[in-house]
Amino acid sequence: MKTVDVCGVVAEVSENETVNLRKGSSKIRKYVTLIDESGYAITLTLWATMCDRITTEDLHKVFAFKGARVSEFGGKSLNAADDHSLLFNQLNHERCRALTKWYKNLMDTGNNNLENFKNLTQK
User: Fold this and answer.
1) What is the CATH number of domain 2-117?
2) Is the pTM for the entire model greater than 0.90?
């Protein structure tokens, strides 16, 4: 399974939802949409305890994910969970600082509507 590192501004956060798995158990999941200056948005599915680490209070903040999994289930999807991914909030890294600056400029011009971004993944 392929993994990627992703960094973006949180543009949307869904509510937690319970998903029934084929094995008869259930898991919590949440969708987080990230944007960057490429003009694209990507929806990342968070699983289990990682769902509690991003809330609607984190909208407009920069997050980085190390080791997010790329899968082909129901089309391309991007997934992160504590057993295989790391999540960083407001990381003091050149890329994160550049995204913060870009997003501040975007907010100042009023062009931060999510409809202006092309989505790379579908829920």
Assistant:
1) 2.40.50.140
2) no
